[in-house]
Write a structure and sequence with these properties.
Elements lengths: L1 E3 L2 E3 L1 H7 L8 E6 L9 E6 L4 E6 L5 E7 L2 E2 L30 E6 L6 E2 L5 E2 L11 E10 L2 E13 L5 E11 L4 E10 L5 E2 L1 E8 L9 E3 L3 E5 L2 H5 L17 E7 L6 E8 L4 E8 L5 E9 L2 E9 L6 H7 L4 E2 L4 E12 L1
Antiparallel strand pairs: 1-2, 3-4, 4-5, 5-6, 6-7, 8-16, 9-10, 11-12, 12-13, 13-14, 14-25, 15-24, 16-23, 17-20, 18-19, 19-22, 20-21, 21-25, 22-23
Amino acid sequence: MAKLFGREYTRNEFLMYSGNPSNFAGVTPVEYADGKAKGTKALIFRTGSGFEFTVTPDKCLDIRSLRYRGVTLSQQSKNGLTGNVWGQPIPGNFSSSVSGGMLFTSGLLNAGPESTEADGTFHQCHGNIGITPAENLCARAYWEGDEYLLEASGTMRESGLFRQNLMLTRRITTRLGSDELEICDTLENLSGIPEEFCLLYHFNFGFPFLSEALRVNFGANECQPRTPQAAAGLAESEKMIHPEHDFFEHVFFRKMVPDAEGMCHVTAENPALGIGAEISYEAENLPNLCQWKSMRAGDYALGIEPANMYIMGRAAERENGTLPVLGAYEKKTYRLKVRAYTL
């Protein structure tokens, strides 16, 4: 049944109050008209509960922003939203084109630093999938029984002549009255040749949800710092601090303990705002969790990043023996959730 502000409704009961739910819940298509985002299309989701998020079909159906009851939870880079023309694979260009956002997908041929193959093939930082537009786009709001569902879906291709043929199909769903969204991704190798691949889900929290008041809980896990700077800050890896101009990013890799259903959960709570958030993901195909802690002034962010590798870059992952392979015509499914709640 449809549930809104603690009350449940059948479809017919609800329609007696509102003949058109788009007044407060639905999927609204928009297009940005100026700046670096000019021409970029987006879908604004509203569930009616105060849970709102924006999806960008032109950028892998990634989630640009997330708001809950008027509070912004997501991070945005200094660049703001950038169109794909600004994100082309030019060496050294990533930092001036990346938008950040609630979800920035990295892959499929690279995740982490820039990487160059022996034959000269260049892979930009975090790969190209995040700037790949969706094909077969579908966005709709509809009744299914007594549930009013909101969803967007599409496919993104990472392909090349005489090279790979990978396809990522994404479906994002929520419903009337809900405080959470679900992501279901299916990655397919449409070739008879096995392909090396990377996949990283870069979820990013930002101000005002991210502040010194934020409390992060990873549950039981094994934590490994990536750099000497991170090792020095290991004891306070879960503590958020005031922005500092000279803070060098800390990155930690965590081996999480899944629940009985195979899901791992990370919570972040801000008692000062009375709001919490949870990121959940299926561990089977995402065995590593990266925590990106950037307390740098102007680049203030907390990244919670389920991944299938160690974000070292394609060549380094291959040398390390940690670059996954998707078999000929193989298919993998990835399930993730983002939830907001009041404390």
